[in-house]
Fold this sequence. Notes:
alpha/beta
Amino acid sequence: MVGPTSYFDPARAGELDPRTAELVRRRAAALGPAYRLFYREPLEFVRGEGAHLFDADGNDYLDAYNNVPSVGHAHPRVVAAIAEQAARLNTHTRYLSEPTVAYAERLLATMPELGEAHVMFTCTGTEANEVAMQMARMATGGRGFICTTGAYHGNSELVGALTDAPRRGRPNLNAFDVPDPYRPPREGLTAEQLGEAYLADVKSAIDDFATAGVPFAGMLLCSILANEGLPDMPPRFMAQAAALVREAGGIVILDEVQAGFCRTGSWWGYQVTDVEPDIVTMGKPMGNGLPLAACAGRRDLVERFRAETGYFNTFSSTPVHGAVGMAVLDKLEDRNIRAHVTDVGAHLLRGLESIAPSCDKIGDVRGRGLFFGIEWVVDRESREPDPAGAGAVCNALRDRGFLTAPAGPSHNQVKIRPPLVFDRSMADAFLEAFADVVAAVPA
Length: 443
């Protein structure tokens, strides 16, 4: 359950300054009062630049959370690409478009593991995952999918069924436990035994479909298990799980919405977890704020799906989307972002790990590139998740001008996932603020 300090409580609206309280009231009236806002005191941002966001009073916040503006908020190159192409032409996807074709070619070149492949553009990661699941069902004739018990891949009826799935009980869906050695199925297991135990759970999820008479379609996982809390998976777990899926005739779908576009220091998260996909889905950071997502897969899978469904998307793969996608790739390559992420990520991880021993509430620090999860617990011995504590830390950082949010299956992780232009000076400023917050936590 989300800690009580993780989100704004509408009952506290009267404690806000009049302008903010009025905007909160109008938002609730127009969008619905259950639509959540981050932090005890919600923020209204009016301008962004790089890794900085500015509120209506001009206060500067360092963004250590948002992966959508992957190359920075309001990046001039991206803004210019939108404006110039929109001023020239933007149409639906039934006409030839040089920007769209060039972008598709360049995007596919970053994922040679797919071999001969096609890409299908969508507007959201949810749509991309929906297409991927339908594609897998069509290719296999199956219906059943496996995922983790801590999964999140989108909000449609099909894809949303995977969210925090129970091990069994949902139609055409079996889940296996998150392979997290920090919370093992039992104590005292070696790394090899842990891997065997988690893989046995994957195999059980697959085998139970056969027992129930449900044809198997495949597996959908985030390549680094981001929403599962970035666990330090047993070596080769992902590759071995994929092998089990293929042995059963299933398709391996890897979700790169959070892991992709250099977030881990490689182009794709699956390249650091050593697993090869049949289908890759991607979204958020590829458009740097413009709704752009995609599903890329082996040519045989995509061609069959397109031939049998006639799938298209009016508002994806337009000339503007192609121009923006190219601008993002230009920026990632021009700045050598992969090397930058590796350097700054290692620096930030070392800093977090040096702070952790000073506080018994920090149970574990996980990191891949510029993506971190700080496991906040009641105490190190019990490892009991403390979502309220994680929420309090995120609010304390917010008060110091640094944006994070609670995450993980138990919402007890402090999630750090900044724009990729986050540099060492920003990392040092964040570490100083985090050390101050940690020092103020009661023993």
